[in-house]
């Protein structure tokens, strides 16, 4: 669609979904959307603890798989920029600012994944990425939603008032409880996650 779906507005010199990679691109798009792109939303808007935990684990299982895959970078399909990079970028670029804190997807930061962090640098250096990305309105948009739209019962740690606790207000017992829940969710996801291995670059 990006190549030819917009008539004269499309740039035919850029092929983000080449025929020889189409099947592999579709498979990776499907996997990363379900667990990462949509996963952070499912965690953030979960209305039960079980739903939160179900979404939480696959997010970090996918980040681990991307971390291994990107050893052979610079992009997800070697040296070829594809639509998958665009789809993954929009979630990774928002992760630390919105999903890690506000949505409690906080087992690790993007900075804790060396290859994923390195992957973002050449992407944001591309003018089309850089010119389209502005973190300030993203943060204003997410934080304007407010904690009241996401029940505290769906969080791994919350204050007794029913509002989600910010990190500085957590005591040691709350932090320990949060870590236990997150570790349990991650272990469950590791057992249940589909057997596809992203670590090996596609042909």
Give a brief outline of the structure.
The protein has 7 helices and no strands.
Order of helices and strands: HHHHHHH
Name the shape in a single word.
globular
Question: Any idea what the radius of gyration is?
Answer: 18 Å
What helical percentage do the residues reach? 40-55%
Structure summary, number of beta strands: 0
Taking pLDDT < 50 over at least 5 consecutive residues as the criterion, the unreliable ranges are: 156-179, 185-203
CATH architecture: Up-down Bundle
The CATH topology, please? Answer: Glutathione S-transferase Yfyf (Class Pi), Chain A, domain 2
Class of secondary structure makeup: mainly alpha
CATH class: Mainly Alpha
| Oligomeric description of these chains | single chain
Q: β content, as a range?
A: under 5%
Output the number of helix runs: 7
Span of the ends, CA to CA: 23 Å
* Major sheet summary line: none
* Overall mean confidence score, pLDDT: 78
Task: Please tell me about this protein's structure.
- By secondary structure, the chain is mainly α.
- It has a single domain (21-192), classed as Up-down Bundle (Glutathione S-transferase Yfyf (Class Pi), Chain A, domain 2), CATH 1.20.1050.10.
- It is built from 7 helices and no strands.
- The chain has helices at 22-44, 49-69, 83-99, 114-125, 127-132, 135-143, 172-192.
- The longest helix has 23 residues, at 22-44.
- The radius of gyration is 18 Å and the shape is globular.
- The chain starts with 21 loop residues before the first helix and ends in an 11-residue tail after the last helix.
- Residues 156-179 and 185-203 have low confidence and may be disordered.
